[in-house]
Design a protein that fits this description.
It is built from seven helices and eight strands. The protein has 209 residues and is α+β, with helices and mostly antiparallel strands. The relative contact order is 0.19.
Length: 209
């Protein structure tokens, strides 16, 4: 839903409430938003929590990998759709941003006709979005202590995620939403000014304060 760059007196919370009042278009074929959230979270847990990635402890703590300068790229003119997994073939990448250990991508969903977004963290040679996936991957591969150390690195890098979110919001003229994959994801979004209602997170243009 394009919303433009003009000044508005409508707040983020007011906009989100309006979207949720007309939730039929975003809850897919489910009877309720809650049913949709439960279904998607179960699917993600069964998929992403069972994935295995190859990276070393040197990869995990290679500072050079995480010294990414702030960069936001409009993907609409680039042919990167061919690189998406088959299961994501209905998504058209719109924008990607990265800063430090963090990245954000927005997509247009051609199947359901809305924009969605994902916040990810760089983990060694990989990008992961599910907090429990990050925890399990590092803990199982190395140890709990290694995970806690990496988690502290992510926490220390949160100001860069805040900057990245702010700059992405200045670039978009549409809102994108995403199902929060767990309570930790919800807390992360809220900590950088992304409202979460009924476990749906909303990335809004910067004019909504």
């Amino acid at each position: 839903m394009p919303v433009g760059f003009g000044v508005t007196t409508q707040t983020k919370d007011q906009f989100v409430k309006e979207v949720l009042r007309n939730s039929k278009r975003i809850r897919l074929n489910h009877d309720s938003i809650e049913d949709m959230v439960e279904y998607e979270r179960k699917m993600w847990d069964e998929d992403y929590l069972n994935r295995h990635y190859e990276y070393t402890i040197d990869d995990l703590f290679d500072a050079n990998k995480y010294q990414k300068e702030l960069e936001i790229v409009n993907l609409e003119k680039l042919d990167i759709k061919k690189n998406l997994a088959t299961s994501h073939g209905h998504l058209v990448p719109k924008l990607v941003g990265e800063y430090g250990m963090w990245n954000i991508m927005t997509n247009w969903d051609t199947r359901w006709k809305y924009y969605d977004f994902t916040i990810g963290a760089y983990v060694g040679c990989c990008t992961m979005f599910h907090p429990l996936q990050i925890e399990q991957s590092i803990t199982n591969k190395f140890s709990r202590k290694v995970y806690e150390t990496f988690r502290e690195c992510l926490i220390d890098d949160l100001p860069k995620l805040q900057t990245l979110v702010d700059e992405v919001r200045k670039k978009i003229d549409y809102y994108a939403h995403s199902i929060s994959c767990c309570y930790r994801s919800t807390r992360l979004c809220e900590s950088v000014g992304i409202p979460v209602k009924r476990e749906l997170a909303f990335l809004l243009p910067y004019k909504y304060q």
